Amino acid sequence: PATAVRDLRAGPVVWFHGRSEIGPRALGNRSLLADPTTYAAKEELNRLKERQWWRPVAPVVLEEHLADWFENSRPSPYMLETFTIRGAVRDRIPAVAHLDHSARVQSVTAEQNPPLHALLTAFHEATGVPMLCNTSLNDRGEPIVEKLAEAFNFCLRKGVRVGWFNGVRVEFTGFAGYGVPGPLPRDHERFTAVPARRERAIRADLNPHGLSDLVLYRYLHDNLMMDRLDIREAEGARAVAEEVAAQLAEKPWLVEYSERRMRERGEKFASLGAAYSF
Fold this sequence. Notes:
DHBP synthase
């Protein structure tokens, strides 16, 4: 962590750890991290990602220090909440402040992300600031990076000197000699297909009492029913069949609606059946 802190004080760092996130933003597994204490860090992140100068950068913060830095704050592990930076510390973190002194915060605990928490702790010990700039690891028009090769491509094209990959520090040189002009192409092959034998095994395991696809669809789209009843148990499967039958009797239009939705999502549902929704 101390070495990574020194890297961050020198410029933005690629942070690649474990499995990638699924969603619209990076939460510390496919991130560009930077020092929040200088406005230059925000400018450099926006330059790397070819974004407008005014685009904000989110802070990733040690959860135990949230209240010291943000008004009316509470845990926000998915970077979904915006809090106002306390007046006494605003000038210490210019890279993450919006024009109204707010910031869209991601909080982190040691349990949620041990390596990132350790890095934030080390940065806090070195600077007195318990946060870093965090933006997704991708170029303009590029999806968030998935693979190591895509991350290396980003570093070499953009001139990022240091990346941390699953705890391994990689220092890049020779940027001018890297001949790839843009992001690596993504694999667009279908990944949902399941061999028939595998599908039968999945269905036998997750739907052992042979509920119909219509009943399965209604069950798998009713979170409250799924919480109460387990279709892998005979009693649970029988109760689900009865509840769905009652639903369809009360609202006959649900039959046509559900069958239409099943057709619309046919490839996905027919390929994976219950396993997809579970």
